[in-house]
Amino acid sequence: WLPSFVELKGRSRPQGRRVLPIERTRGSEILFGVAPCSMALSQARRDLFRLFLKQSVGPQRLVSSELVLQAAARGVPVLHVGRRELDELCGGRVHQGVCLEATPLRYKRMEEDEGSDGESTNRQLLWLVLEQIQDPMNLGALLRSAYFLGVDRVVTSRRNSCPLTPTVSKASSGAMEVFDVYSTDDLRSFLKAKAAEGWEVVGTVSQSETVENVPVISCLEFRWNKPIILVIGSEGDGLSLETQLLCHQMLLIPSGRTLHPGIESLNVSVATGILLHSICSQKLRKVLPLQQQG
Amino acid sequence: WLPSFVELKGRSRPQGRRVLPIERTRGSEILFGVAPCSMALSQARRDLFRLFLKQSVGPQRLVSSELVLQAAARGVPVLHVGRRELDELCGGRVHQGVCLEATPLRYKRMEEDEGSDGESTNRQLLWLVLEQIQDPMNLGALLRSAYFLGVDRVVTSRRNSCPLTPTVSKASSGAMEVFDVYSTDDLRSFLKAKAAEGWEVVGTVSQSETVENVPVISCLEFRWNKPIILVIGSEGDGLSLETQLLCHQMLLIPSGRTLHPGIESLNVSVATGILLHSICSQKLRKVLPLQQQG
């Protein structure tokens, strides 16, 4: 069958003519934006049904040709549609002229993972654990940073975490398409097990928060000498008390001025980026030439 | 006068009854969200007309009482309204039960600024210059980070930059209300003048970009030994060529893995947070006790 909207495409369509809804393959979702669609086409992690492209001119045309080549290589049909059909397909989000119909991505379950047993705990491993991150923009930004900065694994708490939606993929700038994301049903047992294996569990705290029974240090003082799990809580609530109590220490990002009460924290993805970079720089310093000493 | 919607408030209002539009003071705008409204009430930078609050229960009630006290101290009338009136007031944005009618905040003009002449160039000063940041969410996140991390001044290019809207204030978590933001009509002349005064102008570059005639170094190798201007470009386009050529050097955030083509950068506010923290940590290291050496 051919979707009914195809007859409507083109510039000659009269203003105000109704955009007919596009029939979707059962169980599919609509990825939107250049990076998520291009990355999904480059990987074999989703079943792909149709690529929807806006007829484009100018520099956007090059991007389109690239996507058409990728789709051809994967045997994915390409349909040229109007802007309004794309708006409709992705619910008015910023699609940059491209949508892709595909099966959803799911979290990998830590419980089913066989690979980690063989990993030596002597390696400089860094895992990022996300507790109840519900905002898809924050989750996407966190995945993008984790991927870029070299986090070995991201694990989320299954309970109260945002699923791996197309919005998360867009906010991750496509990193979600190439980077496995794990989840666990029982965050507490998972952290306890890793601690027993010799991992260091590190939480975060902002200047206005207090933590009992867990030492707080500046991220500048932190030394990386065993595999680390960095645990991040949600923007509003931070880490749960149960998780805080499983941390060996809490990292604080020092502020550079006296802060007005009520503006005493950073955005969660900015704070996580700073902490990951601060930790990773200890590894990077060893391999980079230092050209500008003194 | 009393706005007409006041008669409509309360839980007894029948479902579906139309929300009458609220008349606005000429030239005012509507701030939304707890942090922007609370910070605006705490400062004398805007004229404030009315505080709109949702009747609240639970923990939100404490926040409301605090806002009512702040409004009383400033002599700002408080109106209790329904959720739908608040939705209408701020165009459906996330208001957290509070809106504030106020005069807009404007950029301070660098050209009118008299203060900087007296500042010694020997101090460890850090200014952040934003070139053509048009996305209000990014601008807000950048202001929040700049404020937290201790940037001495933020300067934007007047041309093609987003104005200081309520959305920017919300994204800055209220930092925009307490932190002066400057703009200049002529970014190039401004950078040239600061360079002539002995400032170091530092740009940024991602791994996939090339820059001619400007040395590129890792942010880990950067040494802070004179007043710095860090120049940031927009997420899509980066710095203009003209601005790049005015930079003494370009900073690169090293990635922690081999990156897939197309996902070779960080979100602009995350990248800026990492660069500012990386620069500031050189100042902070000197004043913090190092408890965990070795």
From TrEMBL, chains A, B:
Keyword Ribosomal protein: no
InterPro entries xref list: Alpha/beta_knot_MTases (IPR029028), MRM1 (IPR047182), MRM1_MeTrfase_dom (IPR047261), Ribosomal_eL30-like_sf (IPR029064), SpoU_MeTrfase (IPR001537), SpoU_subst-bd (IPR013123), tRNA_m1G_MTases_N (IPR029026)
Chief localisation class: mitochondrion
Keywords, in A-Z order: Methyltransferase, Mitochondrion, rRNA processing, S-adenosyl-L-methionine, Transferase, Transit peptide
Localization (cell): Mitochondrion
Domain of life per record: Eukaryota
RNA 2-O ribose methyltransferase substrate binding domain boundaries: 30-108
UniProt cross-references to Pfam families, sorted A to Z: SpoU_methylase (PF00588), SpoU_sub_bind (PF08032)
Gene Ontology MF terms: RNA binding; rRNA (guanine) methyltransferase activity
UniProt cross-references to SUPFAM superfamilies, sorted A to Z: alpha/beta knot, L30e-like
Example of a GO cellular component annotation carried by this entry: mitochondrion
Statement: the UniProt record of this protein carries the keyword Membrane: no
Family indicated by similarity: Belongs to the class IV-like SAM-binding methyltransferase superfamily. RNA methyltransferase TrmH family.
Name of the featured protein: rRNA methyltransferase 1, mitochondrial
Native source species: Coturnix japonica (Japanese quail)
